[in-house]
Amino acid sequence: xxxxxxxxxxxxxxxxxxxxxxxxxxxxxxxxxxxxxxxxxxxxxxxxxxxxxxxxxxxxxxxxxxxxxxxxxxxxxxxxxxxxxxxxxxxxxxxxxxxxxxxxxxxxxxxxxxxxxxxxxxxxxxxxxxxxxxxxxxxxxxxxxxxxxxxxxxxxxxxxxxxxxxxxxxxxxxxxxxxxxxxxxxxxxxxxxxxxxxxxxxxxxxxxxxxxxxxx
Length: 216
What we know:
This protein is α+β, with helices and mostly antiparallel strands. It has a domain at 98-210: CATH 2.40.50. 16% of the residues lie in helices and 28% in strands. The longest helix has 16 residues, at 2-17.
């Protein structure tokens, strides 16, 4: 009995000391499905197409071979072609700056004569002749001239002395040499624009009459 126990213990010790590779392997459940590992060495992929007969190889993009220069050249040519595009709108031959526009007109001088008539609304229409002695920049063409201004529906201020002593100040108190100031608008055109066919028009909207300066 003792000898039997000793043999069992020796057998168990022998099994524990046997390496795993020495043990019998388990047969695969599907023989032939497990393949041996490939022994082909691993290296960089080949640059040669596997199948040169494949029609898809002819459709490969060559952009990578030529870089971005070809695309940039095509873009540049496309932009150059737009310059001659007949459908592209062009700038108008006459710009906004070359259209007549109205600016302030101010002139003053001495009164010569008048044919004004008072309207029902209190404005005046007719003609006033003035010897112009001062102007603003836009009216400088009339400086020094004796000019007859035709006016319609202008507002008139009589800053005059009641010379006829009738208790009111108006047209009947005007006399030659009184001061006159005319305010309105004048049409003008830029000097660099074509002046052919353009005629300046002056529109007076307000007239102020003053007594002549007092001589000391």
